[in-house]
Amino acid sequence: MEASAPPELEPASGNRGPDVALSGWLILGFAVVGAVWAVTLLRPGVTDMDQIWYAARALLEGKDPYRVIGPGRADSLPWPFYYPLTAAIVGLPLALLPLSVARTAFVASGGGLVGYVLARYRPRLWPLAFSLPFCNAAWTGQWSLYLAASLALPWLGPVAAAKPNVALALLAGARSRRHALWLVCGAAVVLAVSLLWRPEWPWTWRATLADAEHFRPLIIRPGGILMLLALLRWRDPDARLLLGLAVIPQTGMWYEAAPALLVLRTWPEAGLITVLTHIAHLVSGWHRPGFTAESWHIGTLTLWSVLIPALVIVLRRRANG
User: Fold this and answer.
1) Contact, 36 vs 182, CB < 8 A?
2) With pLDDT > 70 as the criterion, what percentage of the chain qualifies?
3) In angstroms, rounded to a whole number, what is the distance separating the alpha carbons of residues 319 and 299?
């Protein structure tokens, strides 16, 4: 018998019920891969999770994260706090842990959730554990793993408030009204708490973003206009998700593409995208000077190695019936 699944993520055709042993290995595998990346490659002051940890600590101490985080300040982070305050609200439990432990727990939990989703609905996508979007999300301590998992686990809706730009793409790709409702209500609750905590934060956040030139949609990168072909399958949530990820403002770094991986169905598709991301990384050349130039460059590679191939897969799948 086929495994039953909520409408948030339909089982691939021909998939049998989840094997308990396989499910356990996938969950453990993704969690361990994420944790290994976190433990061996994350360094103080260079991860996005560090921003969340310091911001959550600042909130608990009655301070404004936008005024105490950034270059030349006590935390020694090389960039300001670019996240909305809602991200710090969601990350409050992390503030109770030492930074090194918080990093590992954050990434391992995100990896485990992705592993659980794949084990339950997409066990054939195990090659994604080695894809650059997954590894980069683990390496840099990103919310992307949680956002990807929320495509199948609507109770993760509150996490969408941590990255409202990606939340809009997830909303566009919602599999059902129930899924959309979880996203909207979960984010609304977190937003309400943040406004009660520090009512002025949206204006402070906006001022912080004024100098952030690296947030640009992938659709304006070279070839990005091809993503409009998703409109040919606008009724398909996979196509809407990919288009949403292309039009939202974002850094374009590899981790941003993690939710797009969930539109895949078979292990050859997962293997193809995994290989393409590593080829793109190998041929990308030296890093560009400055994060704005680097994010534009990596964003173009992400577009051509993940989003466009994934869109081709979705269009061919529907065209073939």
Assistant:
1) no
2) 82
3) 28
Q: Mind giving me the DSSP string for 171-233?
A: HHT-SSHHHHHHHHHHHHHHHHHHHHH-TTHHHHHHHHHTT-TT-B-GGGSTTGGGGGGGGGG
- Between 198 and 108, the higher pLDDT residue: 198
Q: Which residue shows structure tokens 């990596």?
A: 298
pTM value is 0.87
Apex CA 103: angle with CA 247 and CA 263, to 5°? 35
Summarised one tens digit per residue, pLDDT across range 198-239 is 999 999 999 888 877 788 999 999 999 999 999 999 999 999
Type of residue numbered 6: P
Tell me if residue 250 falls in helix, strand or coil: strand
Q: Are the CB atoms for 28 and 115 separated by under 8 Å?
A: yes
Q: 257: which 2 tokens?
A: 């593409």
Longest Cα–Cα distance in the chain = 60
Specify whether the CB–CB gap between 162 and 143 falls below 8 A.
yes
Is pLDDT of 8 > 60?
no
Q: Which residue(s) pair with 250 in the sheet?
A: 216
